[in-house]
Amino acid sequence: MKRNTIAIIDKLLERKNELNYLRKPLLEATEILCNLKKSEKILLCGNGGSMADCEHMAGELNKGFKLKRKMEEKLFKQLKKDFPEDAENFWENLQCGIPAIPLGSMTATCTAYLNDCNPELVFAQGVFSLGRANDVLICISTSGNSKNVLYAAKLAKVLGLKVIAFTGKTGGKLLPIADVLLNVPSIETYLVQEYHLPIYHSICLAVENELFGE
């Protein structure tokens, strides 16, 4: 990784020095996301506030966060050739994304599944439908024990996805399943969530810098 990518993680740890023990897994999580190929994607799952965090993180990945992430000039030239009247608008406004799908945001799919099948497998269904080997599943669970998140993680492992877990202090039942565990130093739900936000912000900044920075 670039030195200034690593520096983004280290700046987080300067602000939150109680998280210093997470330096290695933070860099590992960043590297996994940076190494995704264009055909690969990130799936995210969680409940309640953690679902909101999934949507928040996906939002930072799917468009520019701090950088503009310009499209490739090759695509711009093709747009100018095929649709010259719109090419400049595309060029000035579209931003390259890192494909990220918060599974709980697909309301129709989730509610249909919850109504028809075993509700605890709702995220596993999303992984089963959308996940492919070498994709990444990000699990956010303050306890590490949410059943629907655990089922998704177990299936992801069998299908060949990498699992990155955001949890509270113990890691819960996600501990032995996750490829990378980001277990923050609290077991109080709202405090765990307060730690999760700066962590995933820093990971998103680091990944963006690695892929799109100078």
Description:
The protein is α/β, with parallel strands linked by helices. It contains nine helices and five strands. The chain has helices at residues 3-15, 23-34, 49-62, 73-82, 87-93, 107-116, 122-130, 147-159, 189-212; strands spanning 42-46, 100-102, 136-140, 162-167, 180-183. A five-stranded parallel beta sheet has the order 2-1-3-4-5, with helices on both faces. α1 runs antiparallel to α9, α4 packs antiparallel against α5 (87-93) and α7 (122-130) runs parallel beside α8. 38% of the residues are buried.
Short description:
By secondary structure, the protein is of the alpha/beta class. The protein is 52% helix and 11% strand. The chain has helices at 3-15, 23-34, 49-62, 73-82, 87-93, 107-116, 122-130, 147-159, 189-212; strands spanning 42-46, 100-102, 136-140, 162-167, 180-183.
- Give the count of helical stretches: 9
Along the chain, the helix and strand elements come as HHEHHHEHHEHEEH
Shape: globular
- Architecture, according to CATH? 3-Layer(aba) Sandwich
**Averaging pLDDT over every residue, what do you get?**
97
Q: Characterize the main sheet.
A: 5 strands, parallel
How are the strands ordered across the major sheet?
Answer: 2-1-3-4-5
* Multimeric status of the protein: single chain
